[in-house]
Amino acid sequence: MESALHDWLPPIEAGRSAGCPERLAAAMRYSVLGGGKRLRPILCLMAAEACGRDPATALPAACALEFVHTYSLIHDDLPAMDDDDLRRGRPTCHRAFDEATAILAGDGLLTLAFELVASEIEPDEAARACVRILAEAAGPRGMVAGQMADLLAERRTLSGSVHEDEGSLEELEAIHRRKTGALLLAPLRMGAAIAGAPEAHRRALESYGRAVGLAFQIVDDLLDVEGDEAKLGKRVGKDLGLGKWTYPRFLGIEGSRRRASELAAEAVAALVPLESRGHRLRELAMALLERDR
Ligand code: GRG
Predict the structure, then answer these.
(1) Probe ligand 1: pick from 73, 90, 232, 238, max atoms within 8 Å of CB?
(2) Which residues' Cβ are closer than 6 Å to ligand 1?
(3) Fewest C-beta in 10 Å: which of 68, 98, 182, 266?
(4) Distance of CA 90 to CAs 11, 39, 150, Å?
(5) Phi, psi values for residue 87, rounded to 5°
(6) pTM of the model as a whole
(7) What does the pLDDT look like over 83-125, one tens digit per residue?
(8) pLDDT of 65-76, one tens digit each?
(9) CATH code for the part of the protein at 2-288
(10) Nearest Cα to Cα of residue 210 among 171, 186, 181
(11) 28: CA distance to ligand 1 center in Å?
């Protein structure tokens, strides 16, 4: 995964950049190659494998997912959004470079992702399906919509137009299904499309992806309350300060843990049609509950 990401990013060296300015290539590489769990790419490779395909055939899709995810982190960290200084244990892109370069690095990664999917995935039918899945997940009805809804909810809370205990769990889940969930479901759908999986397997992977997506978000909220800043490589305790709606806020710490476990169990149960080929995805769902970064 790491070497594929390395190879598909524009090189920095003068004369080798094939039209990509060195500073832009440096910012893109800084953000993508600076760590990260690679969860979305791993889900994509595992989904292709669970459907009986060599996971290497899904590598371009896996890289594209990581590019889109990294773009979203770069833009989310900007002063106009979360205004963060630390990401993946290092200064955020706009801190290491500057704001304009960070915006362009995000734009570059988002568009490079689609170039990669369109040109490297075979057959054409699978490439077209992956372009559509990725665009839907990342776009104005997916992740961008979730980010907008999250910002609006935060502003309502901070302006006092919504009281602390108002807002509902349903509303919170609707935000997360799009903001985080969509880009965690997309890898499973892309892996299945690349493998040409039958309908029953696609549906199983989608149910798994939805449950894992929400469980991942709940654990993320818990880590913001209880996590270790050094291990996470980002600021903790910021959700409360920003007036964010989180699972611990609605369900408490224990209730959130319980809900995450239920969702992981749901995810595992959804894999039954894949029989023993779903074993890595099964292990991953359980491991996500224990993650500390
Ligand atoms: C700017 C359009 C736009 C969207 C931003 C994903 C996102 C939307 C914002 C990130 C804010 C955030 C911390 C969301 C919680 C869940 C999440 C996506 C965490 C980061 O993902 P990880 O834990 O990160 O997979 P690594 O660094 O491991 O890849």
Answers:
(1) 73
(2) 36-37, 39, 69, 72-73, 75-76, 88, 143-144, 147, 179-180, 217, 220
(3) 98
(4) 21, 19, 25
(5) -150, 135
(6) 0.94
(7) 999 999 999 999 999 999 999 999 999 999 999 999 999 999 9
(8) 999 999 999 999
(9) 1.10.600.10
(10) 181
(11) 16
